Structure formats: C-alpha cells, structure tokens
C-alpha cells in the first residue's frame, strides 16, 4: 500500500495540533514532538493515493477529464459518471465514496471564488443554522448581502436558500429568510418572529422577493412546499416547535399555520 501522496510526496497523514490543555502544561519535549498525526489517505481506483487537499487542488482538471492527475487513468466506469474512491481519515476507516460531487463543487468554487460564502449560506439554510446565517450576513458587505440571500446554486438545481429550508423543514430559517428577503409586511409575521428579529436587530435586505425565485424545474419554494405538503402539514400539526439552541422563542401552532397560509397564498407572487 502506498505511503506517500502522489502530488506532494509527503506521508499520507495529517498533523493535528496538540490539545491546548496539553500545550499549557510544562513539558521538556518540544511542541513539534507533541503534535499527533491522523490518517489522510484518499485512494483512487487507479491505485494512486492522495491527501484530501491535494486531490481538491486538482479538482478542475479531474472534473473536466475524469482522469487521475498523476497517472491519467480514466476514473469513471459508469453513466452518469462517478469517481469511486476510498478515504481513510481520523473519522472514517475507508468507506467507499463517490468523489465526483465534491470534485465538481471544488472545481466550481475555484473558478467562482465569490460563490463560496453563498454556498456556505445555503448549507446553513438546509441545516437550520440561524445563528450562522446571521453571523455570515453581519460579516458581509451591505452591498453583497442581496446576492448572498438570493443566490441560486447551479450545482444544486438552481435552488435558493429558501428552497433548501423548505425542503429540509427548517421553520426557523424559513421565517428568517422570509423576514430578510420577502415583501411580507411586518404585521403579517407572527408576533414571536417579529419580536425575535427586533431583538436581534435584523434588517431587511432589498431585492427580488425570494418567494418568486424559481429553481431549475421552474418551481418556487412555495411550489416545493406544496409538493412536500405532507411534511409541512406534519410540522404545522405536530404541536409547538421543539426548542433547540437556536430557538429564542417558542411559537404556537396557530401562528405557524398562519404564516404557512400567508406563504402558500403568496407563492406565485412576483
Ligand atoms: Zn499530498
Ligand atoms: Zn492514478
């Protein structure tokens, strides 16, 4: 088995910083001696091994040619194409994976570096990370916030953050996005949502109403919610929204239903 990376020829390990607790303790050995290593070994079907970052550094050429950058072997054996790989790291002990989606994303980001924060935003929409979204927006120039909020991902069917929040049933993100990027008036929001955005001093972001953004199949987020009716109906009927670390307030069922109705009524608004 290979022990070094075909790109940089270093051992297939990654150095992890010693715990800060350890660092603070007096020790006669150098800090370099305390550094630990964990596996970082990506094996391709051709037999070449890479560090994770070293294959990502070659993402554009791999995405275009579907060949191994080191030995030029064609890596896909299926239609649509996949790149079978095995990755061994601290957290995974060599499960097979399809590397192609990651490679395509990285290739896209390397030619569109401006899309990186927008894709981070989309991930947070899907995961329900309200705090993360607010932090990202506060770090973003005011003139860039519109593009961030209304970004539609060409690698993900032109979905917007609102599509992803609806798809993942993320009610808190859904409210936040509606506040930030829809033309709904203040009095159309449940009191709790209004109180929350006021407490957080979240302003609204001018631009196209996010409810009118259509994905690659021509669907608005409202159309998507209608398709997913069961999920959304289930959330509406399931009782109070469970409190988690991002929940500052608890909202009752009638208020969820009220907002849901407003959303559905206006789903074709433009
Ligand atoms: Zn390497
Ligand atoms: Zn190879």
UniProtKB/TrEMBL annotation:
Chain segments carrying region Disordered: 17-36
Name used for this protein in its record: Uncharacterized protein
Biased amino acid composition, Low complexity: 25-36
Source organism, top-level taxon: Eukaryota
């Amino acid at each position: 088995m290979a022990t070094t990376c075909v790109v940089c020829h270093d051992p297939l390990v990654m150095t992890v910083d010693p715990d800060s607790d350890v660092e603070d303790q007096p020790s006669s050995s150098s800090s370099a001696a305390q550094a630990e290593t964990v596996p970082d070994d990506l094996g391709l079907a051709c037999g070449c091994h890479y560090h994770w970052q070293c294959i990502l550094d070659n993402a554009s050429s791999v995405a275009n040619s579907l060949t191994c950058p080191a030995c030029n072997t064609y890596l896909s054996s299926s239609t649509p194409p996949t790149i079978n790989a095995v990755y061994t790291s601290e957290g995974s002990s060599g499960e097979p994976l399809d590397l192609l989606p990651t490679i395509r994303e990285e290739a896209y980001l390397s030619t569109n570096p401006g899309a990186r924060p927008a894709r981070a935003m989309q991930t947070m929409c899907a995961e329900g990370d309200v705090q993360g979204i607010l932090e990202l927006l506060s770090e973003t120039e005011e003139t860039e916030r519109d593009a961030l909020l209304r970004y539609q991902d060409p690698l993900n069917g032109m979905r917007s953050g609102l599509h992803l929040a609806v798809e993942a049933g993320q009610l808190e993100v859904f409210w936040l996005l509606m506040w930030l990027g829809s033309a709904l008036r203040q009095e159309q929001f449940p009191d709790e949502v209004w109180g929350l955005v006021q407490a957080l001093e979240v302003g609204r972001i001018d631009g196209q109403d996010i409810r009118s953004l259509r994905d690659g199949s021509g669907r608005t987020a409202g159309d998507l919610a209608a398709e997913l009716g069961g999920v959304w109906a289930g959330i509406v009927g399931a009782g109070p929204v469970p409190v988690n670390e991002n929940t500052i307030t608890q909202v009752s069922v009638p208020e969820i239903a009220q907002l849901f109705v407003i959303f559905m009524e206006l789903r074709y608004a433009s």
